Design the sequence.
């Protein structure tokens, strides 16, 4: 996970708080990026669900929790 992907993800959260499904298949990434995505999802007012396909290790594992 790089910073560009982090910013693209954050900018695509719906403004109407509609449900979001996050599909993850990642070998990890930068801890700061993972923490930022986690915090944004935690603060999102709509329903958030995650699905992991294959891998969710390192920094990405906190997003799944």
Sequence:
């Amino acid at each position: 996970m790089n910073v560009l992907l982090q910013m693209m993800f954050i900018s695509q959260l719906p403004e109407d708080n509609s449900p979001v499904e996050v599909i993850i298949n990642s070998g990890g990434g930068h801890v700061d990026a993972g923490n930022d995505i986690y915090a944004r999802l935690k603060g999102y007012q709509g329903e958030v669900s995650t699905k992991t396909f294959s891998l969710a290790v390192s920094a990405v594992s906190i997003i799944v929790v």
